[in-house]
User: What shape does this take?
Amino acid sequence: MTERYVKVYPRFERFWHWSQMVLIMVLLVTGLALNGLHALIPFGPATMLHIVAALALIVLWIFAIFWHLTTGTWKHYVPTRDGLLRVARFYIWGIFKGEPHPYRKAYWRKHNPLQAITYLALKIILFPAVWISGLLALGWNLWEDVPNAAQLGGLVSNIHLLAAYAIAAFVVAHVYLLTVGHSFREHVKPMITGFDKVNLTPEEEAYLEADEPGRIKPRA
Amino acid sequence: MIRLLPTAFAMALTFSGAALAQQGDAPALPGSDSTADHSKFEILQKDFKSGPEVTQACMSCHTEADDQVMHSIHFKWEFEHPETGQKLGKRNVINSFCGAVAGNEPRCTSCHAGYGWEDMQQSSAQAQATPDCLVCHDRSGQYTKTATGAGHPPLAPVPDNSKTITGAKSWAVDLGKAARSVGPPGRDTCGNCHFYGGGGDNVKHGDLSSALYQPSLATDVHMSPDGQNFTCSTCHVADQHEWAGSRYLMQATDPHGTGKPGEARGAATCESCHGNTPHPGGLKGTKLNDHTDTLACQTCHIPAFARGGVATKTVWDWSTAGKLDEEGRALSISDYLESDGDHRHTYLSTKGDFEWGEDVEPYYAWFNGVVEYTTGDLKIDPAQTVEINPIHGTPDAAGNRIWPFKRMEGRQPYDSVTNELVYTHVWGPDTGTALWTNFDWAKAIDAGMKAAGEDYSGEFGFVDTHMFWPITHMVAPAEDAVSCESCHAKDGRMAGITGVNMPGTTPFNTAGLLGLAMLLAALGGVVIHAAIRILRPSKNGASHD
Assistant: This one.
């Protein structure tokens, strides 16, 4: 086993991550203004910005889904119980004892089991919940004549709001975990350069150097 | 647009006429697109001695006009409500201003579109009142009616203390000049009565005041000479002397919109010109158009009423009327300073206490256009605030919109035995029973009830009332429309309105609180986690990937 810098976040994934980050922040700030929690942005402009950012994010997701399916990167998110408890135990106990992180990332499996299941939940539960409820709210006038529309409309808003708050809670934990272990900078850097330190078997190292030299940095 | 064409044509003629006059000696075209110049009519060259004489002359050509007028609400003051079956109209209803016409005829009928209606027990036709053509069609600007003359104009010699229907000192009207000037009604002809409803400038409606004679663009974007320069009848289109628009049975919405291309619409609605998706395309326009199935146009586009410098009466408490000073003289206190510099009465011995408001934010309610009246035969609950004219509306049915209203607060007499509103004889300087000369409610109510032909127990009390005036005039320029956050906020303008999902009004509902709790739990968890890490520094530098 050797530790080498391997490109684990290709260019599209980094673009997706950061543009998604900007759009989600815009959506959270404008969304909470629309919810009446603050008045930093007047309601009218907040509505426009919220809708434009949401539509842009949905377009981005359509591209991202296509990218995951066509490149096979969806495999990174397949949940596994193997090692899940050890990672969880690390964050609630081991970390305070100074234990090393139990997970070693592979270039074909960049997330630890806890990350994988969290991101999967985000992608298949929270994000769809927020955009389906959001589209329903946006298109309210198209279905306001169905029976009990007023109650259903309230339900849609509440689902949208709860999903949004859950995403905000995720953002808090996500950003906080960047401070765990190495420095914050060290954690953010791979999502900028694409390269992260990964344990490679001699075969993997040989393969990457021979067949995908662009994905592995020369030994320092 | 179609209905603007005649105006545009007239303007084009006027401009070309002016251009001709400048270029040479050719006479300017008369400022009208009519084929008839009434100043040249032989029959109008007379020295008229009375209003009815003028009407007689008009009818020599306009043979059917009097018959048309006599069938209109302007003349009959009667309205049989097709939805509620109630018999309404000025002749029948009781309001929270001067009460009712019965018993006060020559004062109230001074604004009747006719001459000589002096008894409400008779219909205007039975009373042989004559239609008044000039009150609507005078273009000389010097026609008026005497405030207490049952519709007749002040003629020479004018008594010293005589006043006109607008409260100005009377002058001698030149009937011949008025007759030779006639043309389509202007803002002035309609306004001379409708701006002064309730006995003074903007007292009643809140959105109809003398500010609309020559309104600024900010006061009325349609009627302003700086804008479209609409007259009242640009929207209140007329056919055979019947006008579109009714306060008893309104069109709360007009799904027909502009109709087919080129179709003439006989409605006074916003939609008949602007259509049902009035905001221009694009995201913002689409979002705003999403509101049109819930809100009346007026709800956003008339952000406040009583704009333009003339206040409206907001509270009228009749129960305090009758207080006199030490020498037994009637009191008149004018403590409200209007932004145009006028003082308005705040207490009169004749009328009680008043409050006024300018730039008043409307009261909002669901409305389907149907207005009911608490007529004199209906029971009231004096323990509650009585609605003089309950407005019908519900969020659950088609054709309902949230509308802006002036909600007039009143306190007025009722029969405390039968629990019915009473008619009051307030005006009548020569009678021994009129409130305004005798300050005696018992006599005034007794006389009012007799004049209306109603039974009266002899016992009276005062009851709090609300009266609703739909707000539909004084449309502001688009940039002054009600802002989103005026309603989409906690305790916003729509507070209390049911049946709508309104984002921004309930940030702390159950879902909002749950969500906040979730976010705070995440923040709290992170802070605690970080604190433990700081207090128990790792020995070999725990790493995380």
